[in-house]
Amino acid sequence: MTTPTPEQREAVRHRPASFSVGHQRWSNLLFAHWEAVPAEVQATLPPGLFCDTYEGKAYVGIVPFFMERIRPALLPPLPWLSWFLELNVRTYVYDEKGRPGVWFYSLDCNQPIAVKIARRLFHLPYFNARMTARRIGGVIDYYCQRHGSREARYRWATDGDTRLAIPGSLEFFLLERYALFTAKANGGIYTGRVYHEPYRYLATKAEVISTEPASRAGFAFKNDPCSLLTVKSVDVEIFKLEKVQT
Predict the structure, then answer these.
(1) Triad 82, 233, 163: Cα angle to 5°
(2) 183, 193, 244: which is closest to 22 by C-alpha?
(3) In the chain, where are the structural domains located?
(4) According to CATH, what is the number of the domain 6-243?
């Protein structure tokens, strides 16, 4: 087991040499993060993945956003399929080679076809949910409710100018993630890469932040998030999954 080096954390921002399999645009992303106990996070991970920490602290994030222009490579987006809402609950991990990435506890989505495709092709824990979002001036009101769960609501606005995350900063640790890890039913661990320009983030003020999605993953956060950041939009390339050799 090797913890990620600064060079590895920056190297994942480079575009992979292989062909991408899809394109997306992520818009109006809210990154709300809470500190967590590393041992508690580690207990939720499959063998072969390890809790990534910043200054000894683990983090769990809730990220609601708008998915736009979703399409396979070489095909156009479809109006009835390529625009929808998504909300994910995530933490940060690395594999035995020290490659950093994201582990998703859940991804709620209001497009049933997208849920089926993501579950089958990327083995990600997607769930159908009722979701709505409204932009009122500079404020976004965002609602998400999975069947059998309480409604989660987010109301936020941005403040100030955009900034790039500085390598070594907490913002870089939380935002600059270009790989995901997922587990198949047989226990195999896979990783997938994405590529986009580095996030330009804004300071964020939130009137309402629900912890309901994190509670379903076993995290009972009672306090306000320790970090609130917003990204307006990025265009993203998606690359195929590869098996992690352990």
Answers:
(1) 165
(2) 193
(3) 6-243
(4) 2.40.400.10
